[in-house]
Design brief:
The protein contains 28 helices and 22 strands. The longest helix has about 35 residues. About 30% of the residues are buried.
């Protein structure tokens, strides 16, 4: 009988056979094209290879204003363009970092003026990266604060940043190119990979949109941008060099962002492709072909009428199939939660290191870090890092340098130039502070006066000093290295201990802290390291010094000077060394200022070995009585000697118990400058001479009563006190003691004159002997005549040559 189902099946089989024959025919045509059209394919591949070179460099925009780079910027670009530096990846890190700074600024401004942020896409604070493989152009776009025409000119061309000179000096001394971001000139690293750079920018304060262009040939151009409106922010188009084509690959860009910029606080998107699977409706022809290929014809003919109802129901449902296709879309690359908001248990050591490297813009590991959360009246979270080395200009710009901490309020970046967070001497510490207590919608000036900042600063200082103390304890002291178990092979011992690295880099900052921060002076004093007369070149702490003080020792002895070698041979230490007292050596100029503020430690007073009234504290009654009698016996002699010396320089001449082998020394008054301090102050270009004269004070000549030279001079003074020769000897001994003690005098010619007179006397020459006739030293006349004859012979031999 009549069956619609059976008729439809027959029609489907017919269509399937037709489709199959069509497919076979097409396969034959394609095969023929492969055989006869091979040359075409080869030519296409050659064209693709030829097209794989550098990006086509455009010309400057018509009507653009052209400028020359300032000399230092031009030098910087020459170094970068001609650099053989292999790690060119850093350019992406620097440009993303600049974009992040720009976004931070607009977000901060929007706290007090919401209109600054705008609406729609402009309100999306993110960074977007797109690679155009056809044009060979890499584009980096941010919706930050943007730049006006003047900003483009000043920031990217004609005004050399202070960091430009510093970076050039660093590179001249073999510095690392990867540190370019620390000097504020990271933008120029783009020329590691670019032949041409185009910066399009729109600022809220400027009605026009501008474009900055440069071919890296010493010139740049600025013109009004006629391209697609940006709304706000910056778009950097990088025309890549031939050898930099790898930066057009999405996988490469993704890896770089994950490596360098995963902790950037704004979303970073990459225009990326991915394969996606989706269900699509099956077309009628496709459905019939599948049925025919699967060989279902016989089954369809033999199916019973009892299955027709079910199959009719299936025909009513839409047929679908799974297909894979390539989709291009923006993919977020940095979806890691802010590291400082996470618990310390959740963060791996490697993450802390990577975050520091992103923060510091270098590849070094920190010496130490501290991640903590403060609770109470003021709540905040923070991560603090100690870098391995200071920035090159750290001490040059010590007082004008801002703190290296970034301040956030409820995850919103506020500033990285807040001096109120850490004192100057800790400004080398880098990190993040995020407060939930501080207000958001206020100006920066108002925030600086907020009472909570004082509490935050106090806690940060405490944590920073604890971090440094732990670094010292973990590293141990240099003298403890010998206590290592015998045979233990630890590679770390071959390297410089971490705290010694810290001390070499930041020891001066700790000393400045002792001067500036009275409230933390004791904590800072425990961090001091120095060499002593017993440390054998190793660094020790004050705590170690106190532990091994002699029984009955009441003072901590120290001496300041120009070098360790000079101090070891100082006459001031003779008796201290012979009595087995340990003496601290201070050779840094700042030590003089530090010790003026650090007067005691663990209830022991500091005593400068080069100043008067040095006490040893170990003399018994008999020794004291004997010394008292000696002073009485020398009283008339010291009075006579004092009368022969200038009153403006010498306050007194005293018998001393500090000397062993030296006849006499000159010491400073207790509150006056030492010889080393005088030397330092004389070197100050802007020193106040009137203040110098006051602080110099008068000095004391201390004599060694046991020295034979002193005994001989004492006898001469007693025999003939008015003798000119004895007076000269007394002055010479005083002036020599001045030199040996480290002092200088205003009239050195008087001293040299006395020395020459003494030498004349010893050589048997009269003091006022007349000058001799130098002709007495000439050669005899006979010898002169023989020389003349020889000269005449030589001239005669040469004469024919001259005539020719």
């Amino acid at each position: 009988g009549f069956s619609p189902r059976r008729d439809r099946a027959k029609m489907a089989r017919a269509r399937g056979r037709a489709t199959r024959w069509t497919t076979i025919a097409l396969a034959c045509v394609v095969s023929a094209m492969c055989v006869f059209g091979g040359a075409t394919n080869v030519r296409a591949e050659e064209d693709a290879t030829t097209d794989a070179g550098a990006a086509k460099i455009p010309d400057f925009a018509p009507g653009a204003e052209k400028f020359e780079f300032q000399a230092e910027v031009s030098r910087l670009m020459d170094i970068i363009i001609n650099s053989l530096y292999s790690n060119k990846d850093i350019f992406l890190r620097e440009l993303i970092s600049n974009g992040s700074d720009s976004l931070d600024k607009i977000r901060f401004m929007s706290l007090t003026d919401k209109e600054q942020l705008g609406s729609g896409e402009n309100a999306d604070l993110d960074i977007r990266i797109k690679a155009d493989k056809e044009r060979k152009v890499l584009t980096i776009r941010d919706r930050g604060i943007g730049m006006t025409k003047d900003d483009l000119m000043n920031n990217l061309g004609t005004i050399a940043k202070s960091g430009t000179s510093a970076f050039l000096d660093q590179m001249a001394s073999g510095g690392d190119m990867s540190l370019i971001g620390q000097f504020g000139v990271g933008f120029y690293s783009v020329y590691l990979v670019a032949d041409f750079v185009e910066v399009r920018s729109k600022h809220n304060d400027d009605d026009k949109q501008w474009v900055w262009q440069s071919k890296a040939d010493g010139n740049f151009a600025i013109s009004e941008d006629e391209g697609e409106p940006l709304g706000r922010g910056v778009e950097i188009n990088i025309y890549l060099k031939e050898e930099a084509q790898e930066y057009l690959e999405e996988t490469k860009l993704q890896a770089l962002v994950e490596r360098y910029s995963e902790f950037i606080n704004f979303p970073i998107y990459l225009y990326n492709s991915k394969e996606v699977s989706e269900e699509v409706p099956v077309e009628a022809g496709d459905e019939d072909e599948e049925a025919d290929v699967s060989g279902d014809d016989a089954e369809d003919d033999e199916e019973g009428d009892d299955e027709e109802g079910d199959e009719d129901e299936e025909d009513d449902e839409p047929k679908t199939k799974t297909v894979t296709k390539t989709v291009w879309d923006w993919e977020r690359l940095n979806d890691v939660k802010a590291i400082w908001l996470r618990s310390t248990n959740e963060v791996e050591e490697e993450e802390y290191t990577k975050f520091y490297q992103a923060l510091a813009k270098n590849s070094e590991e920190p010496l130490a870090y501290s991640h903590f959360k403060a609770e109470g009246d003021v709540e905040f979270k923070a991560i603090l890092y100690i870098p391995e080395r200071p920035s090159p200009d750290y001490y040059d710009n010590y007082y004008s340098r801002a703190s290296a901490l970034k301040l956030y309020v409820r995850r919103v970046f506020i500033s990285d130039e807040f001096d109120e967070l850490l004192p100057k001497y800790l400004s080398f510490i880098k990190g993040i502070v995020d407060s939930d207590t501080l207000p958001l919608n206020v100006s920066r000036e108002t925030l600086q006066q907020h009472t909570s900042l004082k509490t935050i600063k106090k806690k940060l200082v405490r944590k920073a000093l604890d971090m440094i103390r732990k670094l010292a304890e973990e590293g141990g002291d240099a003298e403890d290295d010998d206590a290592k178990p015998e045979g233990e092979d630890d590679a770390a011992t071959k390297d410089e201990p971490k705290y010694e690295k810290f001390w070499k880099s930041f020891g001066k900052a700790i000393k400045l802290g002792i001067i500036e921060d009275a409230s933390n002076r004791v904590r800072l004093a425990k961090l001091l390291r120095f060499q002593t007369s017993k440390s054998d070149g190793k660094l020790v702490s004050l705590e170690q010094y106190v532990e091994r003080m002699k029984e009955g020792q009441k003072s901590i002895y120290y001496i300041t000077g120009e070098s360790i070698d000079a101090l070891k041979n100082s006459p001031f230490l003779e008796k201290l060394i012979s009595k087995d007292f340990e003496v601290i050596y201070f050779t840094d100029p700042i030590d003089e200022y530090t010790m003026q503020n650090l007067t005691e430690f663990d209830d022991f007073k500091f005593s400068n070995a080069s100043k008067e009234d040095l006490k040893f504290g170990d003399a018994d009654d008999d020794e004291k009585a004997r010394f008292k009698k000696t002073k009485e016996a020398f009283k008339s002699f010291t009075t006579w000697w004092k009368s022969k010396l200038p009153d403006t320089m010498i306050e007194a001449v005293k018998v001393s118990n500090r000397l062993s082998t030296t006849p006499c020394v000159v010491v400073s008054s207790k509150y006056g400058w030492s010889a080393n301090m005088e030397r330092i102050m004389k070197a100050q270009a802007m020193g106040d001479e009137s203040r110098h004269e006051y602080m110099r004070g008068k000095k004391t000549l201390e004599v060694n009563p046991r020295h034979p030279m002193i005994a001989a001079l004492k006898e001469r003074a007693a025999t003939d006190p008015d003798s000119e020769e004895t007076e000269t000897l007394a002055k010479l001994m005083f002036e020599t003691a001045m030199l040996e003690s480290g002092f200088s005098f205003d009239k050195p010619q008087e001293y040299t004159s006395r020395v020459f007179d003494l030498l004349k006397s010893n050589m048997g020459i009269e003091k006022d002997a007349e000058l001799v006739d130098e002709t007495q030293f000439h050669l005899p006349e006979e010898e002169d005549e023989e020389d003349k004859k020889e000269e005449t012979k030589e001239e005669t031999k040469e004469a024919p040559k001259d005539e020719l």
